[in-house]
Amino acid sequence: MKQRNGFTLVELIIVIVFASLLLIFFFLQKADFDAMDRDDHRKTAINAMYYALEEGFYAKNGYYPETISEENLKVMDPALFTDPFGINLGVEGSSYSYEAANCEDGKCKEYTLRADLEKEDTFVRRNRS
Length: 129
Known about the structure:
Blueprint: H1 9-61, E1 64-65, E2 96-104, E3 107-115, E4 123-126
């Protein structure tokens, strides 16, 4: 009887199916980790806006602006106004929103900052005073 070297077709199919399942699991987990990373970026940006508004703008002016941008929050890194998908704050479809309230002549007493997250509920920061 002749002895054969190598793998049978069934063994190769089992290995390919197993490797495919591992790859599918890896890419699903990678997508989750990427979404969590984007969520962390959004939270960091909202917190930076919050502290720039409170410690920078409000401390200096005694009110909050009607809109925020890199012009009136110069203490903040301008890149943080852009969400992980490249959409700027105030543009439709952005993950970020700033809503001023109790405004008179462009001077507001309240605001709400929001970030729409992928893996958690909306992240919200409101004015201190």
